[in-house]
Amino acid sequence: MKTKLLALCLLVLMFSCKEDSKEKAMAEREIGQYSIAQFMDNESVGGGSFSSDNSKLLVTSNRTGIYNVYTIPAKGGEMTAITQSDSTSIFVNSFFPNDDRMLLNADGNGDEIDHLFVRELDGTIKDITPEEGAKAAFYGWSKDKQSLYFGSNKRDPRFFDVYKMSLADYTSEILYQNNDNLDFSGMTDDENFFALSKNLNTNDSDLFLYDASTKEMIKVNENQSANSAQDFSGDNSTFYYTTDDGSEFSYLMAYDLNTKEKNKVIERSWDVAGSGFTSEDNYMIVYVNEDGKNAIEILDTESMTPIELPDFGNKSITSVGFSEDENWMRMYVGGSNTPSDLYTYNLLTKEQYKLTNVLNDEINGDDLVTAEVIRYKSFDGTVIPAIYYLPHQASSENKVPAMVWVHGGPGGQSRQGFNPLIQYMVNKGYAVLAVNNRGSSGYGKTFYQMDDLNHGEKDLQDCVEGKNWLARQQEIDGDKIGIIGGSYGGYMTMAALTYTPEEFDVGVNLFGVTNWIRTLKSIPPYWESFRESLYLELGDPFSADSVRLKRISPLFHADKVTKPLIVLQGSQDPRVLQVESDEIVSAVKANNVPVDYVLFEDEGHGFVKKENQIEAYSRILEFLDQHLKDQNTPIDGETESTEIEVEETD
Prior knowledge:
Elements: H1 2-28, H2 36-40, E1 45-50, E2 56-61, E3 68-73, E4 80-81, E5 91-95, E6 102-106, E7 115-119, E8 125-127, E9 136-141, E10 147-156, E11 159-166, E12 172-176, E13 183-187, E14 193-199, E15 205-211, E16 216-219, E17 227-232, E18 238-243, E19 251-256, E20 262-266, E21 271-277, E22 283-289, E23 294-300, E24 305-306, E25 316-322, E26 328-335, E27 338-346, E28 352-354, E29 372-377, E30 383-389, E31 400-406, H3 420-427, E32 431-435, H4 445-448, H5 458-472, E33 476-486, H6 488-499, E34 507-510, H7 516-521, H8 528-538, H9 545-551, E35 565-570, H10 578-589, E36 595-600, H11 610-629, E37 641-646
Parallel strand pairs: 31-32, 31-33, 33-34, 34-35, 35-36, 36-37
Antiparallel strand pairs: 1-2, 2-3, 3-4, 5-6, 6-7, 7-8, 9-10, 10-11, 11-12, 13-14, 14-15, 15-16, 17-18, 18-19, 19-20, 21-22, 22-23, 23-24, 25-26, 26-27, 27-28, 29-30, 30-32
């Protein structure tokens, strides 16, 4: 027993020494400093549909500075460009099931009006959903591989109907007309049962099965809860869905379409975030949202036991997909300190192939920072999860400034994935704490609902307590802490500068809401099924709630802002209108406060073009270097304000 204990102590000591040596080596060597151009020269690759003969994959890449479509051999090799757009981003859906035609999608520079396109065998590209102003979404292929399914709001801008389109001549017929403000979530291969949902609030939804043969609408859930359709079995006998009925976290259920019996299939300590079958039903893919990180299980459906997957060490498999014959699997593999690369894996031979090297060769991966999950108590004792990025060069002798990062939403989640802007700021000597304030998803439904009708109040206090946690860390300069966020996170930035004006030293607002009344009144028509849920969480702008909405809207209280601000906005944004940013910039300027404003004429809700990302992120760093790191802020009475408009380029 003593021998075992001694061996264990020696093992712990060796591991501790190894970690100490690693940290010492990092501290002693010079950490590489990289430009934003170098960071944005990382490649972003997405998708991964196998061709019918498994010889190649169809992917999207931004290697040219804008997203285009490429093919790449399944065993590795050079990418072949399929599209060459220099203005509008184009994304992949899938290879056609029987030939090398390709299904693509694109919107109009971020306006979110997506259309479906076919790239024909002769190279021509055709819009197969050309209705002006109508959105289209790909739903899948028919079992006989002769048709595709898609959703469109061309009949009524508020509702998405389900259509079936012939692959021979692209003519379509309606399968399900949505007159009840429901969301389509899937159907059986025989086109008889349709899975439909209705939002009750931002957490809960009712789940229905529509029987096309009997015209019966069957309600699946019994109690109010979060319910989400996942898949049908290949024999059309069983419906799978997730629910949090009677639980904090979602679990997977099976519903027998004949007997209507329900059985719990999979339950984990976190949300079962998604599940689905491969084409021949031999495997079930299960996604678990494990503390802000994807945990993927692939189960053999006969035994319901996990199959063995390749081991990538400290990297994680973040996404998978299978070939039609289930002999091949594609995987995205990465981590918080490295963007995800695309791999393929042959399930028969157990051979794997790395298809991409997306990290810029000029960047030493050891210079990037691995995220650490931490937790802190907020003002009322609520435990707040957060993801912490500490620069390698930070120490008690070399304290660094820091930023509180707030995710989008409301109801979003900061996750343990690679974020180029965060890594860029950290590389330049800024610590980042990505808070998952109350109201964030992934930590149970009680936590998720804690910010309802509390926006800009208790959730803001969680961010302030995040700042206080940072200030207590020995490596952080507690006098130099700012706040940054996009969309809802941009709102939280403005709320922080408005309602807690002395807490944060600077604010970075990326397309954030500043006038809730206008934003909630201008919800796009295709959000109709979600509109009432947003009103329940945030308030109804057409009711007495407007009083509270005005109170929590920073625009009406901008005179309280005293700290430097930078605002970034896309003029094509259909969610947060440009006027939101125009007006807050104008209002804060009146306070003689330094304000920068960066407006992109060819972006929507988020910036997807590398040229614009480089401009945006470099402007953010310049702003932080001046107003946070160096704090060369003009004296009272002086105004420093710069604006830049980035024009659309063809």
